[in-house]
Amino acid sequence: MSVNKKAVPMREQPPEVRKKNFNEVPYGYSEEEALEEANRCLQCKNKPCISGCPVNIDIPAFIKAITEKDYQRAIDIIHHTNSLPCITGRVCPQEDQCQAVCTVGKIGEAVSIGRLERFVADWELERKLKGITSNEDYLNKIEKNGIDVAVIGSGPAGLTCAADLAKMGYNVTIFEGFHEPGGVLVYGIPEFRLPKAIVKAEIEELKKLGVRFITNALIGRVLTIQDLFNQGYKAIFIGTGAGLPKFMNIPGENLNGIYSANEFLTRVNLMKAYLEGEYDTPVLRGKRVAVIGGGNVAMDAARTALRLGAEHVYLIYRRTENEMPARIEEIHHAKEEGIEFLTLTNPVRYIGDERGFVKQIECLKMELGEQDSSGRRSPVPVKGSEFILDIDEAIVAIGTTPNPMIQRTTPELKFKRDGEIDADESGRTSLPGVFAGGDIVTGAATVVTAMGAGKKAAIAIDEYIKSLKQ
Ligand code: FAD
Ligand code: SF4
Ligand code: SF4
User: Is 319 helix (H, G, I), strand (E, B) or coil?
Assistant: First the structure.
């Protein structure tokens, strides 16, 4: 059977237009485009793509349902293992996961599994928003068991764990430190990649399942883990992520105008600077901005700075583009929008003006040396290669670690050296009844791996609670 080697492209806003607005960049497939792309799937007998998906969606089955225009069946198959498909269809690093092992990828471009997932998820969302379908019948069938479980953190790990437990009949309460639930999905990933309305709609679904949200509730400060057990929660899931930014600790890093990407993106997202003219958000709108890092967070910060009015944005990364951890699509989009990539470059100090604001950044050129423990060749400074760039804002996106708040108030819980919780494959920690998953266990990872961890923990929590009754 011959197959078109080229995937059906997704239409998107042209770079010149989109870099001045916060609207979503890709438009999503039309029905005709989705059908054409779905027909590229070979329906492989050994189904390699399923093992490439951290939540093991039955990919060939949902794609087959699309080819038969049975979109309800397609979304039902996806929902079987993935409760947030509108989100994963947009932000999953598919090229490293399901699509990396797609058979068609060996002879041409892999089947666009993520785009097809987005197509059916958006199809369902639109129908729900228009009131054409609802899951009232399904919700009415859930048998409540009256047992309380607490979930700390409302990112993808916490939301997935809560949804699965609620479907099993538990009374689930999510405690979220911020005033809005969603974790990195709302305060990290920008509107132009993941519209807030989509995350909001997914959260509304959880509320319909009976999940209770308590926001502005920082566990480890207002309440401890022990307090939650004392309040009657039979088990606790910790999904607090890894939101504490790392810095380079170089001279001048305390100058005004230098942000962590975490603070910069949180200000723009949660304090709504992206709604131009509607909110007077206290965030610097630099004209010449340097972003340090090469991951998704760095790309998001650079593209956000551009949309806030920057005239020139440098992306400074110490290795080459090949080693960048960001998704290929995001690198491509950033370049199209005019972000200048300075690879094999490392900042060594910031220089301030008389008011204490950053005005320049000094960098060194690097070259690649021996492989380090991560398997990547480590960057080595090139002697005498220093150069200076004029800037008025810098955003540091070189990684994050877990916030130590719960660690400080739960000394009996075992943590790893870098502050991650020590938990097994199913999320069991050193404390009976306490489970954990997502970035707080793995360190900064991906949305779908956090969801997978939330799912496994929900099963383990159910087993644990059932074992208490015996
Ligand atoms: P989080 O999403 O971090 O959620 C944790 C939640 O817990 C937060 O809401 C936090 O406020 C809350 N919390 C923390 N401490 C407490 C406490 N003590 N009490 C109560 N609540 C607390 N991944 C991808 O797959 N694709 C991408 O394109 C992508 N882009 C990204 C872009 C950015 C800017 C960032 C920052 C990350 C990106 N990621 C991406 C990574 C991905 O978002 C994370 O791996 C994922 O969100 C982790 O989920 P989580 O549930 O473990 O934690
Ligand atoms: Fe691929 Fe992510 Fe969807 Fe799994 S959840 S099929 S990895 S896009
Ligand atoms: Fe279809 Fe690719 Fe999966 Fe084969 S590996 S079933 S072609 S998506």
Answer: coil
Question: Residue 59: CB within 6 Å of ligand 3?
Answer: yes
DSSP-assigned states of every residue in 162-220? HHHHHHTT-EEEEE-SSSSS-THHHHTS-TTTS-HHHHHHHHHHHHHTT-EEE-S--BT
For 284-309, give one letter per residue: b (16+ CB within 10 A) or e. bebebbbbbbbbbbbbbbbbbbbbbe
CA 183, chain centre distance (Å):
9
**Residue found under tokens 């593209």:** 303
**Contact of 349 with 389, CB cutoff 8 Å:** no
Name the residue of 104, 106, 107, 113 whose CB sits within 8 Å of the most ligand 3 atoms, as the mutation to test its pocket.
104
Ligand nearest to the CA of 80: 2
pLDDT (tens digit per residue) in 44-74:
999 999 999 999 999 999 999 999 999 999 9
The single-letter code of the amino acid at 81 is T
Interval 190-221: pLDDT, tens: 999 999 999 999 999 899 999 999 999 999 98
**Cα–Cα–Cα angle for 39, 97, 335, nearest 5°?**
90
* Integer Cα distance of 156 and 466 in angstroms: 25
On the 0-12 / 13-18 / 19+ scale of CB atoms within 10 A, 408 is exposed
Nearest to 120 by CA among 194, 61, 40, 50: 61
Task: State the ligand closest to the CA atom of 183.
Answer: 1
Pairing of strands 358-371, 387-390: antiparallel
Nearest CA to ligand 3 atom 3: 49
Closest CA to 425 of 54, 112, 50: 54
Compute the Cα dihedral for 291, 294, 297, 299 and give only its sign: positive
Task: Establish whether residue 88 lines the binding site of ligand 2, counting it when its CB lies within 6 angstroms of any ligand atom.
Answer: yes
Q: What ligand is nearest to the CA atom of residue 78?
A: 2
